Amino acid sequence: MLKRFSVSLEEELLEKFDDYIGRHGYSNRSEAVRDLLRSKLISEEWEQDSEVVGVVTLVYDHHQAKLQERITEAQHDFFQLITSSTHVHMDHHNCLEVTIVKGHASAVRELAEQMIALRGVKSGNLTMSSTGDGLH
């Protein structure tokens, strides 16, 4: 069941929100507000260390001494979180490692931070989400 409510905003903030809506392809303000609320509520779930799924993305130079071994060690240390891992050769020097994980937010963050901090990782990112149960 949908419920209506009103929101009062300063004109400048509303203009920025409307620009945001346009840049992100929303057809109306309600859709944008719903997505922003869901996103914030899901991020609070992470803070409560609930069950999440995530993707750890690494870009690195495969010529970096023993880096691939250290990535594999980190993955083995957290094997219970890892659902899948894919290794892609981007060019002669660079590789992309994508690791799909599922578990408590704190453990997922710990694994991601360890992998991203490895010497030789050029770029690293963790994207987490949850089912958002209860946010219908």
* Mean pLDDT across residues: 90
Gyration radius over CA: 19 Å
Shape call = elongated
Strand arrangement within the widest β-sheet reads 2-3-1-4
List segments where confidence is low: pLDDT < 50 over at least 5 consecutive residues. Answer: none
Would you give the CATH topology of the largest domain?
A: Alpha-Beta Plaits
CATH class of the largest domain: Alpha Beta
Number of domains: 2
Number of strands: 4
The number of helical elements comes to: 4
Q: How does the helix and strand content classify structurally? A: alpha+beta
Per CATH, the superfamily of the largest domain is ACT-like. Chain A, domain 2
Biggest β-sheet strands, sense, barrel: 4 strands, antiparallel
Question: Helical amount among residues, as a percent range?
Answer: 40-55%
| Beta-strand percent range | 25-35%
Corresponding CATH architecture of the largest domain: 2-Layer Sandwich
Structural features, described:
The protein is of the alpha+beta class and 136 residues long. It has 4 helices and 4 strands. A hairpin with a 4-residue loop joins strand 2 and strand 3. The protein starts with 10 loop residues before the first helix and ends in a 7-residue tail after the last strand.
